[in-house]
Amino acid sequence: MQMDFTLTPEPDDTSRERGRLLFAAPVEFLKGVVAMAGLPPADRIEVCFAGRSNVGKSSLINALTNRKNLARASNTPGRTQEINYFTTEGGPYLVDLPGYGFAEAPVAVVQKWQALLKSYLSGRATLRRVFVLIDARHGVKAVDDEILSLLDRSAVTFQVVLTKVDKISQAEREKVLMQVKGALQKHPAAYPELVVTSSEKGDGIETLRAIIAGLA
Ligand SMILES: Nc1nc2c(ncn2[C@@H]2O[C@H](COP(=O)(O)OP(=O)(O)OP(=O)(O)O)[C@@H](O)[C@H]2O)c(=O)[nH]1
Predict the structure, then answer these.
(1) pTM assigned to the model
(2) Which of 62, 95, 97, 180 could form a disulfide with 50 if both were Cys (CB 3.0 to 4.6 A apart)?
(3) What does the DSSP 8-state code read for residue 90?
(4) Which domains are delineated in the chain?
(5) Sequence-ordered strand ranges (E) for the chain
């Protein structure tokens, strides 16, 4: 059966305000986790952010949280292998997963990351949604597809967030959306609405805030 993927509609005033309020309060770094035993108590829901190295994940988290340098943009892609937890006031944990798919990362590092990711995704009952970031210039790559399959197997809903949309034309945007929608057809855990963002220009940031506030 064909799934009908669409863009997330603009939030209504109430949802927008909820999103604004959630992120008006300071978001703080809680801890970096390298093993399941280090996860904070599962006392609230959480959402996490995943994506290939350099997809613009740190920039997106910084834009969402109105902070310049909350999520440290790592200079050595693939090096930071921690799951970083951030707290919102009265809302979910924001969880920043290490970037994947960096070709030059040592095999041992990749394997360790995959093992931790698997345990995290299948073992965290409070994980409500995974935002999978996809670079609007590149669309869904094989390495993204592997992660999406892992999410399918873990039965965790994921929502695709296109990043850096300011870098492409309207025509390219239509093209990449087609590619992404096609790639998502075989992923039952995909949420049917996509979000198109630019951390640089602010596109989609309020929408994403409203989505996160709506899950809380
Ligand atoms: N034009 C444009 N550039 C962006 C945008 N978001 C991120 N970038 C740039 O893309 C590069 C990577 O962004 P980061 O936010 O560091 O990416 P990351 O996914 O956190 O990277 P890793 O730490 O390697 O996992 C940086 O040079 C950013 O300035 C965007 O919305 N528009």
Answers:
(1) 0.94
(2) 97
(3) S
(4) 6-215 (3.40.50.300)
(5) 6-7, 28-33, 46-51, 83-87, 93-96, 127-135, 158-163, 193-196
